[in-house]
Amino acid sequence: MPDTRTDPPFAADERPMLQAWLELQRATLAWKCEGLSPEQLRQRSVPPSTLSPLGLVRHMTEVERHWFRRVLAGEDAPPLYCSETDRDGDFDRVDAADPATAFAAWEAECAHARALVEERRALEALSARPWRGAPVSLRWILVHMIEEYARHNGHADLLRERIDGVVGY
Length: 169
Prior knowledge:
Blueprint: H1 14-33, H2 38-42, H3 53-72, H4 89-92, H5 99-119, H6 138-164
């Protein structure tokens, strides 16, 4: 599992710094899943948790879709894996899920998110839809996404260590 990720710049303006940190977090999730078989990607942590590497990829697909498509851009983009009656479908329904399809959906959402970010030059640009009663800035969304990935990459690190003993930042 060679580490081909790129470190964020040590000195840069805020926007490229935030985008580089988000890209590092995205690359970290991919790296933590690299080389795992479909069965290993579906492997759960410990009961009663339904956490799995594939579930994390599906969850981050939903998160990318929510924050960039629905909140930032105001697009009509229904969830791919979750519903009102199955709020944790991204985590719970991985037993028959195809990893290649899930990774392709995640990569497509990341690409769409990058394009939406590029369309908005100012970090102060406000979301098309409110969150908790108020619009949020592009800056807020980027910081939140870094935090969301960092938290779940910690989960991915523990899952990977449990699956095959591989550890590393």
